[in-house]
Amino acid sequence: MTHPVYSPATADPAELEAHTVGRADLLDTLTTRIAGAARDGARPHTMLIGPRGAGKTHTLRLVVHRSLADPQTAERTLPVLIPEDTLAIGGYLDLLVEIARAIGGDTADAARSMRHDRDAIGIEQAIMSAAAGRMLLLALENLDRVFHRLGRDGQGSLRAWVETSTAITIFATAPALFAGVTSRDFPWYGSFMVETLTDLTVPEVAELLAHRAPALAAFAETSEGAARIADIHTALGGSPRVWQMLADIADIPMLRAVTPAVEAVLDRLAPLHQARLWELPPSEQRLIVELARAGAPRTVSDLAAAVGVSNQAAAAVLGRLGESHWVTSHKDCADRRSSWYDLTDPLLRQVLRFRDR
């Protein structure tokens, strides 16, 4: 089977292993951390940070698989993997039911019944009964969205259950740090060990190409192939998803020409970015487009003038975009009074400029 670009959770663990390149140290660290937690009772909660396409799901699933390959860890662990982008969680009770559903059997049936009575404690007890003294390894993807749906009270309930049970370790992912884990105002402040997924290097993406497209392997090993891959890497970065896409469509002439390879990937990414942008209000769309067209960070006053609004209105919109991880900001060392804004995802700029043409 072809390793899925968007749904690695559907792949067999052996398939994940076969298509894994780079990040060996991080994988070893995370696997050892889970095995140690199952063995000695420590409960180190971990959160993987990386933008879309960085390989968060792949890494999470592979680490869980490697951890459970050790018989002692498997015997002492009940893995609960909540599906990525689950839409079934609207509050804390729903999260508990999804955990019970992942466990299955009588636990799932009991949880659904108790949700009607809003019996959170009863569901928690049923889940712990199913764990039967084992560590419950709870894998939660897109934790920022989950916490948003839980709300502050739901986050507090989850924190209380985790602390009182002393049996739960959370292994989570998120596209970026968010207030629920960085602000002292929220129950989970400072509770996660944060690991960041970095871009793949040029040699690593060459290895990925060879794995996914054997016909390109020989070319990737030549000096010319390495140079062209480096050129494409400069344009597109080292996102595993991007290079999986490229491997599926590229041939040697396309890699040699560079530009057709870059544009083919941007064309395939465009509908995804477009769908996300259409979900935003027009005021936010306009500022994102201006940042993309600029090709460099811009100040609030620059952006306000570009779209014809007041500085105050632009600052408010940029604040919302920052909270939802669309933009980042920094201060200039030479002028600490101004904040400079840029797009969080550099590929978004590439896609919008490509479509502008």
List the defining traits of the structure above.
Rossmann fold, Arc Repressor Mutant, subunit A, WH-like_DNA-bd_sf, P-loop_NTPase, alpha/beta, five-stranded parallel sheet, 19 helices, WH_DNA-bd_sf, MarR family transcriptional regulator, 357 residues, globular
Explain this structure to me?
This is MarR family transcriptional regulator. With 357 residues, the chain is α/β, with parallel strands linked by helices. It has 3 domains: 8-196, Rossmann fold; 202-273, no CATH class; 280-356, Orthogonal Bundle (Arc Repressor Mutant, subunit A). The protein has helices at residues 13-18, 24-40, 56-68, 71-75, 92-103, 105-116, 120-131, 143-165, 179-182, 202-212, 217-220, 223-236, 240-249, 252-257, 259-278, 282-294, 300-307, 311-323, 346-356, and strands at residues 45-49, 77-81, 135-140, 168-174, 192-196, 298-299, 327-332, 335-343. The chain has a 5-stranded parallel β-sheet, sandwiched between helices. Helix 13 (240-249) crosses helix 15 and helix 17 (300-307) crosses helix 18.
- So what's the overall shape? globular
Q: Specify the biggest β-sheet.
A: 5 strands, parallel
Distance between the termini: 36 Å
What is the architecture of the largest domain at the second tier of CATH?
3-Layer(aba) Sandwich
> Average pLDDT, to the nearest integer?
90
CATH topology (fold) name of the largest domain: Rossmann fold
Q: How many helices in DSSP terms?
A: 19
- What's the count of strands? 8
* Relative helix content: 55-70%
Spatial arrangement of strands, main beta sheet: 2-3-4-1-5
Roughly what fraction of the amino acids lie in strands? 5-15%
CATH C-level of the largest domain: Alpha Beta
> What number of domains?
3
Rg = 23 Å
> What ranges have pLDDT less than 50 throughout 5 or more consecutive residues?
none
Which oligomerization state do the chains in this entry correspond to? single chain
Helix/strand/pairing category: alpha/beta
Q: CATH homologous superfamily name of the largest domain?
A: P-loop containing nucleotide triphosphate hydrolases
- The H/E string reads HHEHHEHHHEHEHEHHHHHHHEHHEEH
